[in-house]
Description:
The complex is a heterodimer of chains A (160) and B (203).
Chain A: H1 2-8, H2 20-34, E1 50-51, E2 55-56, E3 63-69, H3 73-79, E4 84-87, E5 90-92, H4 96-106, E6 117-122, H5 128-140, E7 145-152
Parallel strand pairs in A: 1-7, 3-6, 6-7
Antiparallel strand pairs in A: 3-4, 4-5
Chain B: H1 14-28, E1 35-40, E2 59-64, E3 70-72, E4 75-77, H2 79-90, E5 120-125, H3 131-157, H4 161-169, H5 175-191, E6 196-198
Parallel strand pairs in B: 2-5, 5-6
Antiparallel strand pairs in B: 2-3, 3-4
GO molecular function, one term (chain B): transmembrane transporter activity
Coiled coil (chain B): 65-92
Protein name (chain B): Biopolymer transporter ExbD
Amino acid sequence: MSKFKKxxxxxxxxxxxxxxxxxxxxxxxxxxVVTVMRQNTLMVENKLPFADQTEKLDxxxxxxxxxxxxxxxxxxxxxxREARIQLNDKFAxxxxxxxxxxxxxxxxxxxxxxxxxxxxxxxEETNMGLVSDIKQELRKAEALKINYxxxxxxxxxxxx
Amino acid sequence: MARRSAPEVNAGSMADIAFxxxxxxxxxxxxxxxSGISRKLPEWQPEExxxxxxxxxxxxxxxxxxxxxxxxxxxxxxxEELRQAAVEFLDNGGGTGDEACDFCQGAGDPxxxxxxxxxxxxLVNNRGTEYGTYIAVxxxxxxxxxxxxxxxxxxxxxTSFTEMQARYDDxxxxxxxxxxxxxxxxxxxxxxxxxxxxxEPTS
Lengths: 160, 203
């Protein structure tokens, strides 16, 4: 009888946290696998416009990115406030677009070249002049498949 | 001295280290799938070519100026009304004989388009137009096409056009199903082709 009594008086045992690291590791591995590191560091402001009639860009390796917009605050001293194009990690002028497309094509397998898409990530405050200059260059480079990257949302928000 | 067993490594701080890494990856993760409006640019033509002759009634003129204002068919318009106006234009079905449109539900206005296959939306923007406005206009025009295509797909195949496209792009759809989907998508695309012409921007 006294044996049982003794146990009861000890109070509640502590919850074992031995499996906590396992749980945390599981989450850790999930996020490690899912994480995609940004390919390019943005040097321009990039507030994308909204649209709701969108299509998804699936194959990420078949997409070439062209950024455009006002230089970010820390580059404004050197590059001014006028909207500019960013290719890879540096600012570029309009006539460099063609050579950029060609060099991107070089890195892809030949049979995949027709499926290459150009994603235009353009800040919503950019003037259309710059965008149509880019489009003209893309036409000259025969990169005809383009995608205006947008955020999901009502397009009317762009007008405010 | 007697053999001592090696002391056990204290694993109590492993959780802390794992948490630290976890938080790092949590913060850096951006689960982003890029989506946007897909377009196909026309091929580059070095020489100036004479534009083909198109009847005035089959053209839906959309002008956007540097102040982001819209001029649609020579009338000022708010962006909210653009989608409806474009649908009415495409769906007008004013044609007779060869040009007749057997599925259109529009008013049959003699000054508007004869058939969706003939109807062209012409978009001209200014160099000073904001990109956001341009995307909004593009979005509304694509929405107008999608609305009509959805309606026809619903009537013919009992499912919407956008859904058919989504299923076609889905890698889980079997090859056989893709064949029929592709056929159906082509049928709809032939009925209502997306004829969106963009002119050089005015300065």
